[in-house]
């Protein structure tokens, strides 16, 4: 079974602030402009909704109002996808071609490639293992994670420091498989896009 990452260049703090904001104008825009998408999601998850899970709009309403949330942990996925919808509306989609689809321990393999270049401040496994912003309930799928502007700045500093060390020593860095190199370069591209937008970071969802 394969997985994939959906990634957004985004103002992390501003997007987190939407949780519990009670912005009914935003909810009305979503319900009006994206009615077809909401209906499509409800059709896809009709079995779960039939067993008591919230609809796509009900989940969005709960996220924006900070609750109430279903007490059934099997319903928590709807709040994760609702928050992903908010990110898709407020952020810009990033190229995920090296991460969709992927199988097995691919995220760990890419993290090893990042570490080989001295980058430890960020990890692509973060997008699989993090918790949604409070008070949203924990869900396994979609997985969620953030690269904050501060962590991105540190990661790029680490990369530049490694480049300087390699240049000074005149020794090549450890060889990486071509597909790992491509994935690491894609991660660096995300970070450079974020660095060019003060206050912006990367939010990712694994599904």
Jot down its keywords:
207 residues, alpha+beta, four-stranded antiparallel β-sheet, elongated
Structural classification: alpha+beta
Total of DSSP H or I helical runs spanning 4+ residues: 10
Averaging pLDDT over every residue, what do you get?
96
Q: How many strand elements?
A: 4
Low-confidence regions: none
Give a short account of the largest sheet: 4 strands, antiparallel
Instruction: Give me the side-by-side strand order of the main sheet.
Output: 2-1-4-3
End-to-end distance: 11 Å
Helical residues, percent = 40-55%
Indicate the overall shape. Answer: elongated
Order of helices and strands: EHHHHHHEHHEHHE
Radius of gyration, taken over Cα atoms and rounded to an integer in Å: 19 Å
Chain-wise SSE layout:
Blueprint: E1 5-11, H1 12-16, H2 24-33, H3 35-44, H4 46-50, H5 56-65, H6 77-90, E2 92-93, H7 106-116, H8 126-129, E3 143-147, H9 149-169, H10 178-195, E4 200-206
Antiparallel strand pairs: 1-2, 1-4, 3-4
Helix pairs in contact: 5-6, 7-10, 9-10
What can you tell me about this protein's structure?
The chain has 207 residues and is of the alpha+beta class. The protein contains 10 helices and 4 strands; from the N terminus they run βααααααβααβααβ. The protein has a 4-stranded antiparallel sheet, with helices on both faces. The N and C termini lie close together (11 Å).
């Amino acid at each position: 079974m394969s997985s994939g990452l959906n990634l957004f260049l985004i103002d992390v703090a501003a997007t987190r602030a939407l949780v519990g904001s009670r912005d009914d104008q935003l909810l009305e825009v979503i319900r009006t402009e994206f009615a077809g998408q909401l209906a499509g999601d409800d059709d896809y998850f009709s079995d779960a909704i039939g067993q008591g899970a919230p609809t796509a709009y009900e989940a969005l309403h709960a996220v924006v109002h900070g609750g109430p949330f279903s007490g059934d942990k099997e319903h928590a996925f709807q709040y994760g996808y609702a928050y992903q919808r908010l990110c898709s509306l407020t952020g810009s989609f990033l190229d995920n071609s090296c991460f969709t689809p992927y199988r097995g321990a691919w995220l760990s393999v890419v993290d090893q490639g990042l570490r080989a270049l001295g980058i430890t401040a960020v990890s692509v496994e973060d997008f699989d293992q993090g918790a949604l912003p409070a008070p949203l309930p924990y869900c396994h799928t979609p997985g969620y994670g953030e690269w904050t502007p501060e962590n991105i700045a540190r990661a790029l500093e680490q990369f530049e420091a490694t480049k300087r060390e390699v240049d000074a020593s005149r020794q090549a860095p450890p060889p990486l498989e071509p597909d790992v190199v491509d994935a690491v370069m894609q991660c660096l591209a995300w970070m450079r896009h974020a660095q060019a937008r003060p206050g912006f970071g990367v939010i990712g969802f694994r599904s």
